[in-house]
């Protein structure tokens, strides 16, 4: 696969459940022979042998059946992180059920065919499973979540083949009596279900790192987690999202373990990413599950404020709901003189972009509309100034380790704000 970053998060596969095992055509046991005087001592054993045939609660005979075909289950596995393996193998077939291992006389030794095991297919946590029509079957957002996507076929029944003069008597014991040759179709197991599925991976992370290429997102992830993303001095070093685990807040004591969070480093965005330019559009959907966004801005760039606006505008054009989420600004590379000298000015300019909710409240119009006017009012499109400002702006140097603790403090505070909020997180619809 030449460009795995284009295929790691979406794939089409076909799954087929196992067919049911076949039943058998059995001859009825010979019950017409009467014991002689010499066999009187064996009457009791024969009666036990006759009664040893499996019977239901109403006394009817129970005939063996073919084994059930294997089901197909897709489950979320923490050990998986991409869907690339599915591009090498696009069809999955479960085993068929076992046949009734007999073609002879009905006896108590006959057993049902062996049921086939369930075929379990692991996928990364956060995978959405859809059918070929686009209907969502499951959203496997938690480890261990699973969905049954194809049911195995039922096993075939067994039939008794008896002479014509015995049919009436045997039919009083069981309904599985072969009437003619056409009944043999009932012996065959039913086919398993086959379905074409679309798997879409949406990264499960608490914090999403966004920014222009080479802003320092991967370096930041490597500095505060154990992740080892590719880092280089050229654009688009990150081709696929990288995940890292942020340790808990040590000031919480024993509660630090419950404050751990997952960070996702997404490939850099460029202007026009929402239209498909660069790599952005392929990965913007991975922000859907995040609770907090961290905008990494290169403070030593020519125009950091414009870079910040570019990223925010691309998020707004892709899905405005992303701009409603809590976020902080990380001004990176403040160890460089051109960034250090204007850090205070950049912080003030960025904090002025947005409002705290008071300015964006719709005001009632003083004019009374005519009765003939439409009830629908066209609301003006929101701009960046109409959305909430960042919770904080932190200047750091990830490479030099300057003010890393202050940045972590702000990230954890933003996560606590989401946790303490009574309002549920608004999840935008999938694009």
Automatic annotation (TrEMBL):
Domain Obg: 5-204
Pfam families membership: GTP1_OBG, MMR_HSR1
Compositional bias per record (Basic and acidic residues), positions renumbered to this chain: 36-46
PROSITE patterns assigned to the protein according to its UniProt record, in alphabetical order: G_OBG, GTP1_OBG, OBG
The OBG-type G domain, residue ranges: 205-416
Stretches with biased composition (Acidic residues): 368-378
Stored CDD domains: Obg
Alphabetized SUPFAM superfamilies for the sequence: Obg GTP-binding protein N-terminal domain, P-loop containing nucleoside triphosphate hydrolases
InterPro entries reported for this sequence: G_OBG (IPR031167), GTP-bd (IPR006073), GTP-bd_Obg/CgtA (IPR014100), GTP1-OBG_CS (IPR006074), GTP1_OBG_dom (IPR006169), GTP1_OBG_dom_sf (IPR036726), OBG_GTPase (IPR045086), P-loop_NTPase (IPR027417)
Keywords: GTP-binding, Nucleotide-binding
Positions of region (Disordered): 22-53, 354-388
The keyword Cell inner membrane is assigned to this record: no
Similarity comment text for this entry: Belongs to the TRAFAC class OBG-HflX-like GTPase superfamily. OBG GTPase family.
Protein name stated in the entry: GTP-binding protein OBGC2
